[in-house]
Amino acid sequence: MDEKAKRTRELLASFYSTDHSAGGGAGVGSAASPRKMASPDSINSPSFDPDVYMSLLVQKLNLEGLLQKHVEMAAEIKNLDTDLQMLVYENYNKFINATDTIKRMKNNIVGMEANMEQLLAKITSVQSKSDLVNTSLFEKREHIEKLHRTRNLLRKVQFIYDLPTRLAKCIKAEAYADAVRFFIGSKPIFEAYGDSSFQDCKRASEEAIDLVIKNLEAKIYSDSEPIEARAEAVVLLKQLNFPVDSLKTKLLEKLEDYLMTLQDEHKETGASALDTLETSEPSDIGKLSDTILSLKTPTGTHMVSVGEISKIIRAYLIIFPDSERRLIELIQELFTKRYGIIERRVKERMTSADILKMIRVIWEDVTLMDEVLAEAALPAFSLEAARSIIRQFISTSFSHLLLEVSEALTKSQPMPKKGSEESSLQNALEGSKKVVIQGSLDLLLEFRQLLDDNLELLAKLRDLIVDWVQEGFQGFFQKLDERFLALCGKGYIANPDSSVIDAIQVDKVQTGLVLVLAQLSVFIEQIAIPRIMEEIAASFSGGGARGYEHGPAFVPGEICRIFRSAGERFLLLYINMKTQKISILLKKRFTTPNWIKHKEPREVHMFVDLLLQELEAVGIEVRQILPQGLVRRHRHSDSTGSTNSSRSNATREDKLTRTNTQRVRSQFLESHLAKLFEQKMEIFTKVQYTQESVISTIIKFCLKSLQEFVRLQTFNRSGFQQIQLDIEFLKNPLKEFVDDDAAIDFLLKEVIGAAHERCLDPIPLEAPILDKLISTKISKSREESQSSSLA
Amino acid sequence: MRGASTGIVYGGLKYQARCIADVKADTDHTSFLAGTLSLKEENEVHLIRLSPPGSELVCEGLFYHPNEIWDLKSCPFNPRIFSTVYTSGETYGASVWQIPELNSQSNAPQLEHLISLNEHSFKIKCVLWWPSGKHDKLISIDEGNLFLWSIDTSNKMAKVISQESVGMLHNLSGGAWDPHDRNAVAGICDSSLEFWDLRTMKKTSSIEQAHARDVDYNPKKQHLLVTAEDVSGIRLWDLRRPKCPVKELPGHAHWTWAVRHNPEYDELILSAGTDSTVNLWLAHPPGANDSMSESPVDSPKRPKDSLLNSYTDYEDSVYGLAWSTREPSVFASLSYDGRVGNLFNNLMMILS
User: Fold this and answer.
1) Where does it live in the cell (chain A) (predicted)?
2) How many CB atoms lie under 10 A from the CB of residue A758?
3) How far apart are CA A15 and CA B240, in angstroms?
4) Which of A206, A464, A692, B88 has the greatest number of C-beta atoms within 10 Å?
5) Which of A16, A34, A13 is nearest to A24 (CA)?
C-alpha cells in the first residue's frame, strides 16, 4: 500500500491543491523542506516514515492506545478510500458528457456543407440577372437626367427674366431683404453672362437694386426709422458690397459735429458764466447766484442732447457693431473736454457747491452714457478726472487763502495819512487774523460739502479728500511761514538765489509788519491751529489712503512749533530792527562831536528828542498789536519823580566830586565792590508778547548801547556834563514807557558811570543848573507840542 | 556755568581793560598780554602766564605803559615784542615795544620802546602783524588810512612803504590780515568790509551790508572769514561769494564785540559780547559739506551748527578775546572790569 497510498495522496493533493508544498516537496524529494525536521509522528508530512512512526507509536502508547490508534487509522483510511472513489466517479461522469457533446457536433456539421454550396449558386445567378437589368435601363435614365437639368436651367432663366419685376415688386412692398436676397442669388449668373444674353435684364435689375440701395441709405440716415430697421438696412447694404465703412465714418462725423456744437455751447455758456463772474461785484450775491443758475440753464437743453447722444450711440452700436472703439474715443474725448473746462475753471476761485454742481451734471451724463457704452469705462475715467479736479480745487483753495492772508497783511501797509496810521497795524493784524481763521474754517466747510455729498463718484474719493485736506493744511501753514519770512526780508536764507533782491528789500520792510507777523504767529499757534485741528478731527479724520506708517498728513504739533519759533524770531527781529535804528542815531550822536573839546552844556541835546520820538513810534506800534502785560505797577507822577531822582543823583555826584584824584582808584575798587554786592541786574531777559516787555527790552538795549558808545569816547568836563544832563532828562520820559524803574535807573546810572570813567575831569553839573536846564527843555517841548497840536 | 568749563580768573588788572593778546611766539608757555585802559592812572601791560599744571594764572611781568591802551597785538615771531595803540586825551599813537629781560628783582621794569608809527593824522584804530609767521611788514589802520610799514626791530627803524586813504565817506575801525595771503588785508568800514591788495594798495572787493565790529579769517581755509556785528550777530562769509553770508549764528543778546576762530579747529568759533557773556559755537564751514547741503533731505544727518557753551560768569562787557595758539583748548577773555578769565573746556570731547 506504500507506493499506491503515496500516489493517491499526491493526486488528491494536486487536484485539490490543499497543500502545495506537500505535493511539490514529495516530487523533488523534499530536499530543503522544513518538514523534514518536523516530528516523525506527524502523518501528513512528506518525510513521513511509517517504520519510525510505528516504532514511535509502539514506544509511546500502550496496547489499548495502540488498538485505539489502529481503529482510528482504519476509519481514516476507509474515509479516504470512499473519497477517492467518489472523485473518480465524478471525473468519469464529466468525461462521458464531453464525449457525447463532441459526437453530436460532429453529426451537425456534416449536413451544413451541402446547404452552403446551394447558397453560393443562388447568389451568382442573382448577380448576373441584376447586371442584365442595369445595362438595359442605363440609356433611359441618362435621358431623364438631361431633361431634368434642362428644366432647372429654364426655370432659372425664367427667374432672371422675372428679376426686375420681382425687385420692383419688392421695392414697392419695401421688402428690401427679399430684393437683396434675389439679387444676390442671381448675381453669379449676371457675372457670367451679364454682358451677353442677360444684358437688359441685368441693367434693369441693377437699376432696381440701386434704388434699393438708395432707399436703404435714406433709411439709415433717417433718425425716425426704428433702429432695428436701420441695422437691417446696414446689413443688407453690406451684403450688396456697398462701402458701409464710408457710410459709418460719415455718420460718425455727423455725430462728432453734433458733439462739437454741444461742446461749443458748453464753452460759451462756461465763458459767459465766467465773464459774468468777473464783471459782477463779489458782494453782489444775487447776481452770482444768477450766474450759477445761468450755468444751469443750458443743462435743460443739454440734458436732452445728452439723452439724444446716448440714443444715437445705442443705435450706432447696433447698426455698426464694430464701431465701438471709435465711439468710445468720441465719448471719452467729449468728457475729457468737459472735465477740462471744469479744471480750467477750478483755477479760478470757486465754491465747492459750484464744483459739485458741475461734477454732478457731468456724472449724470456719465451714468447715462455708461448704460449705453459700458466698455468706455466712463465711471473710472470720471473718477480719475474728478480726482484731479478736486485735488486741484483743494490746492488752489489753499493758495488763494495764502494770497488772501498776505494781501490782508500788506494791503493796509501804505497809509500816507497820519490819522489812519494809528489803527492800520491793528487793522492789518485783525484782518489777517480773521482771514486766517475764517478762511481756514470756510475752506473746511467747503471741503465738508465735498465729503457730505452723496454723489457716488465723490464717495469713492472720500479718503483721498481727507488726506488732501490734511496735506493741504500742512503745506498751507508751512508756506505761510515761508511767506512771512519773505515778507520781512528774511527769506534769503531759505533761498540764496534770490538773495540780491531780498537783501535790498530788508531795508524797506516795515517794522510794524514784523510786529504784526509776530503776533499773528502767536495767534496761529495758540488759537488757529487748535481750532482747525478740532475741525479736522471732527470731520476729516480717517483718510489713511497714505498708509499708516506715514501717520496723518496734518501734524499740528509741528506747525505749532514752527509758528512758535517764528513768532519769537519775528519779535526779536522787531526789537533788533528798532534798536538798530536807534543805534544808528546814537552812533551819529557820539561819533560826530569832538568830546574832548566839548563846550559847556547849554541845553539838553536834541538827540534825546529823536530817541524819544523813536520810542514813541515803537509805543504806537506795540500798543496796537500786543496785549498789555498783566502786572502794572504804580507810576511816578511827573514833577516829584523828577526832582527826587535828580536830587538823589546829585548828592551822589557831589560825593564823587569831593573825592580827589588820589582816591579815584579806591573809588574804582569801591564801585567794584558795590557792584559785587548789588544784585546782578538781569538786563537781557526773555522777551514776552506784551507791550511792556517789548518796549522795555528795546529801551534796555538802547541804554546798553548808549553805555557802550560812551565807553568808546573820552570826555572833557563839559562833555561829561552834557551826557549827565541828557541822561538826567531822559530819566522821566523813559519811565513813562516802562514800569521797570529799577532797571532803567540801573542802566542810566551805568551810562553816567561810564561817562564818569571816561572823563578827564569828572565834575558833574550842579543840581540847580541841571534842574533848570531840564525844566526849560520840558517847557520848550511842551510848547512845541502845543503849537504843533494847534497847527 | 557748566562743569565742562573751569574758569581761572586773574584779578591782577586793576583798571578797565579792553585788549588781550595771545603771545604766539612763546612756544614754551601759554601766555597772554593784557593792557589796561585807564584815563587817569598809569596804565599797565601784564604778561600773564598759565602755570604748567594749568591751574593758576601767574603775572610774569607788569610793565607801565604811558597811555591807555586801545589795541594790543603780540608779535607772532618774537615773544618779547608787541604793539600797542594808545590815546591820551586828544593825542594818539601807535608803538612797538620790547619786553625787557625778565628778572625778578624789579617789579615794574620799563618797556623798551622800539618804534613809533607816527605818520598818522587820524585816530589810530589798530596795528596788524602778519599772523602766520615772520614778516618784516606791519599794517596800521587809522580812521581814514591804511599804512604798510617796513619795520626793523633790531635797528628800531620803521618806514612807510605805502599808504592808502579810504576817503572821507568811509570810517575805518579795524581790520584783519589774511593768514593765507600776505598781500590781502580786510578793513572794517562803517557799513561794509573792504579788501585791499597790499602790492597795489587798491581795493579788490568788498562785502556790503556788514556793520562789523570785528573780523577774523579762518586760519585753516582760505577765503573764509567771520564777522561780529551789532545786530546780525555772527556771520560767516566766503569771499568768493560776497553777496550773502554763508551762515548766520545768533550771536549775543546785545552787541557781539569780538569773534575768533580756534587756531586748530576752525569750526570752533568763540565770540564775546556786551551782554557779559562769551559764547562758544560749533559752525561747520560750508566747504566741508557742500555735498550735503545739496541734498537737504537728509538734513538730520548733517551736523547742526550750535551753541556749545555760553560762559556767563562776567560782571561787565567782554571786549578782549584770544585763543592760545600753544594750547588750542585754552582761551583768554577780558571783561571791561579787568578780569581775565582763562577758560578751559573739554574741546577734545566735543571734537571727537
Assistant:
1) Golgi apparatus, trans-Golgi network
2) 22
3) 123
4) A692
5) A13
CA atoms of B6 and B50, how far apart (whole Å): 13
**Can you read off the three cell numbers belonging to residue B149?**
610799514
State how far the Cα of A696 lies from the Cα of A703, in Å rounded to an integer: 10
Please tell me whether residue A566 adopts helix, strand or coil conformation.
Answer: helix
Asked if residues A446 and A472 have their Cβ atoms less than 8 Å apart, the reply is: no
Asked whether B48 and B320 are in contact (CB, 8 A), the reply is no
Asked if B231 lies within 8 A of A576 by C-beta distance, the reply is yes
Q: Rounded distance, CA A290 to CA A276, Å?
A: 9
In chain A, which residues have their Cβ closer than 8 Å to the Cβ of B253? 684
Q: Do A704 and B254 touch (CB under 8 A)?
A: yes
Residue B123 sits at the vertex; the CA angle it makes with B118 and B129, to the nearest 5 degrees, is 60
How many angstroms separate the CA atoms of B235 and A51, rounded? 135
Contacts of B248 in chain A (CB under 8 A): 493
- Work out the angle at residue B69's Cα, subtended by the Cα atoms of residues B68 and B71, and round it to the nearest 5 degrees: 160
| Cα gap A232→B324, rounded to integer Å | 106
Among B85, B126, B230, the residue to mutate for chain A (most A Cβ within 10 A): B230
The pTM for the full model equals 0.65
**A704 vs B contacts (CB less than 8 Å):** 254, 274-275
Side-by-side strand order, sheet with B137-142: B124-129, B137-142, B145-152, B157-165
List the one residue out of A198, A136, A125 whose CA is nearest residue A161: A198
CA distances (Å), B3 to each of A165, A644, B269, B287, B345, in order?
Answer: 124, 46, 20, 33, 9
3-state secondary structure of B263: coil
CA distances from A75 to A2, B63, B121, B222 (A): 18, 159, 168, 137
Query: How high is the mean pLDDT of chain B?
Result: 80
pLDDT of residue A96: 94
Q: How confident is the model at residue A85 (pLDDT cuts 50, 70, 90)?
A: very high
Q: What is the pLDDT of residues A342-401, one digit of tens each?
A: 777 777 766 777 777 777 777 777 777 777 777 767 777 778 888 888 888 888 888 888
The three cell numbers of residue B190 are: 562803517
Task: Name the more confident of A220 and B105.
Answer: A220
For residue A150, name the pLDDT band (cuts at 50, 70, 90). very high
Question: Can you tell me the ipTM of this complex?
Answer: 0.85
Buried b (16+ CB within 10 A) or exposed e, B83-97: bbbbbeeeebbbbbb
pLDDT at A41: 64
Three-state secondary structure call for residue B273: strand
At residue A651, φ and ψ (nearest 5 deg) are -60, -40
Among B242, B177, B251, B179, smallest CA distance to B215 is for B177
CA atoms within 13 A on the CB side of B258: 22
In this predicted structure, the answer to whether residue A641 has a pLDDT above a threshold of 70 is: no
